[in-house]
Specification:
The chain is of the alpha/beta class and 494 residues long. It contains 15 helices and 15 strands. The radius of gyration is 25 Å and the shape is globular.
């Protein structure tokens, strides 16, 4: 049983052999907590949750590290813009508030918590040490303008560009910092000198002077700290291949680390036939999606496409996913009723239903899965083909009920429960809360809506009625009604 995986670095589907038998180490680039989570973030985190669950089902002990970038140009810029508009939220408070929104959304979708979730600001020491190693090896230098900035010398690393198959002389200038003090405009920032326009709290001491880390060095340092100098898989969205992952690979290898053995990238999301982007104004936020569909249905939709393909979202996408998932739920209900009714007495029937159809809670193994499902997952996590096997088993199970074939029904029902468990989709699992709803989803929706209500209140206090009205309209579009009163604002579903 050999796992196959598409390695972006090799640009080929290859055999996956863990560095340590029975164990898999995965590093996933987590969010930069500058603004609310959107559908692209949810799709990406779900992809690696599916992989993690599959490795677990095949008997592997998985260590998954997913970082939080809580210091970055965009975080500082957003906090500054809000303060200039009359707000009072500091950059670190903004980052923590948004981080909580991400966590709530992930929990609502049944995404397993990572083994560890390091924050960039808690790993500055490791970043400084890594930068020092690069300077000592001749692959980094302090800015020639006398500032504390430090840059990676791209000309010093012959393999630079190997991840994305680019030649250095064809690359665009690095956009992560101003070209001041650089030997070459393509050199990227490892350490950024503190500026007078930035808050003192966004600065740390270093051998080169006060400042803060560049984006790329953060992930290299955190991956090495928690997974070691060599680990199995580095994952992230396709949009991170360049420059982020290209720079991670270069600086880690230049520092003498093997770093990731395989690079995996998930596809992006299109909305209405267009690539989702902030500039086009077509972003779909977690608050909107969780207001429109049951979380388990949203999970089904987000995870139904192959992870490397583009996920297409349209107005009817969630309705189609709900219809497909209803067929699965309907079969589970029919199967349980049949088993109870076919037993010699009711008590025996209840016992049989609990024994054979109980949620597995992540305990499914390949022994209980159809061979076709296993083959699909081993073939670069081919979820569409795996879901086809699931639906075939549902149809066969329903036919067995119609024919009164209890043996076939039981066999198919056990397979369906096992497949749903591996995919994190069993609707009866405690993961999804009570039958009336998902407690985690309710909490996530509340956290996301309350965050927008607070932004609206601040906008109104600053007499920014255009922003206030835009937030109300956005929530109304997601089916959320706001009721203002002297004691505050309440929200409810339309």
């Amino acid at each position: 049983m050999t796992q196959r995986i598409y390695d972006t670095h090799q640009q080929a589907i290859v055999d996956f052999v863990p560095r340590h038998e029975g164990k898999v180490g995965i590093y996933v680039c987590g969010p930069t907590v500058q603004s609310a989570p959107h559908i692209g973030h949810l799709r990406s985190v779900l992809v690696y949750d599916q992989m993690r669950r599959w490795f677990r089902a095949t008997g592997h002990d998985v260590t998954l590290i997913r970082n939080v970038t809580d210091i970055d140009d965009k975080i500082l810029d957003n906090a500054r813009a809000a303060q200039e508009a009359g707000g009072t939220e500091e950059w670190w408070a903004l980052a923590y508030r948004v981080e909580r929104e991400f966590t709530a959304a992930y929990d609502a979708l049944g995404v397993l918590a990572p083994t560890y979730e390091p924050r960039a600001t808690a790993n500055i020491r490791e970043m400084v040490a890594l930068i020092g190693e690069l300077i000592e090896r001749g692959h980094a230098y302090q800015a020639n303008d006398g500032s504390a900035s430090v840059y990676f010398n791209t000309a010093s690393w012959a393999d630079y560009g190997s991840l994305t198959r680019q030649r250095r002389d064809q690359m665009e200038d690095a956009a992560d910092s101003e070209p001041v003090g650089k030997r070459d405009p393509r050199d990227f920032a490892l350490w950024k000198a503190h500026r007078d326009t930035e808050p003192a709290t966004a600065s740390w001491p270093s051998p080169w002077g006060d400042g803060r880390p560049g984006w790329h060095i953060e992930c290299s340092a955190m991956a090495a700290r928690y997974l070691g100098d060599a680990f199995d898989i580095h994952g992230g969205g396709l949009d991170l291949r360049f420059p982020h992952h290209e720079n991670e690979l270069a600086q880690s290898r230049a520092a003498g680390q093997d770093f990731a053995n395989h690079w995996v990238h998930n596809g992006l999301v299109n909305t209405g036939g267009q690539k989702m982007s902030k500039s086009l104004g077509n972003s779909l936020f977690a608050v909107d999606l969780l207001a429109q569909a049951r979380p388990v249905v949203l999970r089904y939709f987000l995870g139904a496409a192959h992870y490397r393909s583009t996920l297409e979202y349209s107005d009817g996408s969630l309705a189609e996913a709900a219809a497909a998932f209803d067929r699965i739920e309907g079969f589970l209900e029919r199967a349980e009723e049949y088993i109870v009714g076919a037993a010699e007495d009711h008590a025996a029937g209840e016992a049989a239903a609990q024994l054979y159809l109980a949620p597995l809670g992540g305990a499914a193994t390949t022994e209980s899965l159809p061979a076709e499902f296993t083959a699909a997952m081993l073939d670069d996590f081919a979820i569409p083909q795996a879901l086809a096997v699931l639906h075939d088993a549902v149809r066969a199970g329903n036919s067995a009920i119609d024919a009164g074939d209890g043996d076939t029904l039981l066999h198919r029902a056990i397979e369906v429960v096992a497949m749903l468990d591996v995919l994190g989709l069993d609707p009866r699992d405690s993961l999804w809360g009570a039958a009336s709803g998902n407690a985690a989803a309710d909490s996530a929706l509340d956290a996301l809506v309350v965050g927008l209500i607070e932004q609206r209140a601040e906008a109104r206090a600053n007499k920014d009625f255009a922003t206030s009205d835009a937030i109300r309209d956005r929530l109304a579009g997601a089916g959320i009604i706001l009721e203002d009163s002297p004691t505050g604002t309440r929200w409810s579903h339309a």
